[in-house]
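Async update (no meeting this week)

Hi team, since we skipped the sync, here's where things stand on the single-chain job. The sequence we agreed to prioritize is pasted below, unchanged from the tracker. I ran it this morning and attached the output directly underneath so nobody has to dig for it. Comments welcome in thread, and please keep replies under the output.
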Amino acid sequence: MRWVAAEAAPTGQQTHMRHAGRITNWNDDKGYGFVTPHDGGARAFVHIKAFQVSGRRPVEGDLISYDTAPDARGRLNATSVRFAGQRVPTPAAAAKGKRPAHQRTPPRRIPRLALGTSFLLAAVVLMVAGLVPAVLPLLYLLVSCASYLMYGFDKEVAGKAGWRRTPESTLHLLDLAGGWPGGLIAQQVARHKTAKASFQRGFRITVVANLVLFGMLWQGGVAATLTEWLLG
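Output:
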C-alpha cells in the first residue's frame, strides 16, 4: 500500500510530497533505527535528531513522514522527520507563543539573606524582651556563625585539587542544631547549594525539625533550666 504525506504549500506553489513509512529496527539506547516506506522503496536510516518536533521518543512501529537525502557515503537518510499527523508550527505561530525577554516572569527567588537575618534578629528581640530563655538565641547565633563559615569554606575549596570538601551531612547537622539561619545567609552570599534540589530538600527538613525542637525546648522549660545553669 502506498502512503505519502502531502505538505501544504503557499498558494501558487507546488505541494511538497513527503515519504511515509514505519519505523523498524529501532535502537532506543543509541537513538536510531530504520524506516521502511509504505510504497515499497528502499528503507532509510533515521536518527532521533532528525525529528523536527521534540516530544516523546520514537518506538518501533511508529508511523512517520519524512524527506530523504543521501549522506556522505551515499546512504539514504531520513530527514525532517515527524510522527504521522504531527505538524510543525509556522515561524509566526512559534513567535506568537514566545514572550519577549523583558516581559517574561523572572524565576522565583527565596530571600535567604532576609529570612536568616530576620530570624536571628527576632530571636535576640525575644530574648531582650524576656520572652525566651537566653540560651536559645545565643545557641542560634553561635551555631549559625559556624554554619556560615562551613558553607563558605566548602564553596572556597570546591574544584580545588587536594582540598577536602565539607560533607553535606555535616552541613545538615549544623543546620539541624540551629545553624540554619547562618546556612540561609551563606547560601545567598556565597551562591552555594541553592541549585541542588536534593540538598535543598534535606535543608528544609532540618529547618522544620529544628523549629519543632525549638518549640519543645521552649515549652518544656528545658531552655530556661539550661539558661539558669549557665548563668549561675
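Quick observations from my side:
The radius of gyration is 31 Å.
The beta strands are 5-7, 16-27, 32-37, 44-47, 63-70, 76-83.
Reply here if anything looks off.
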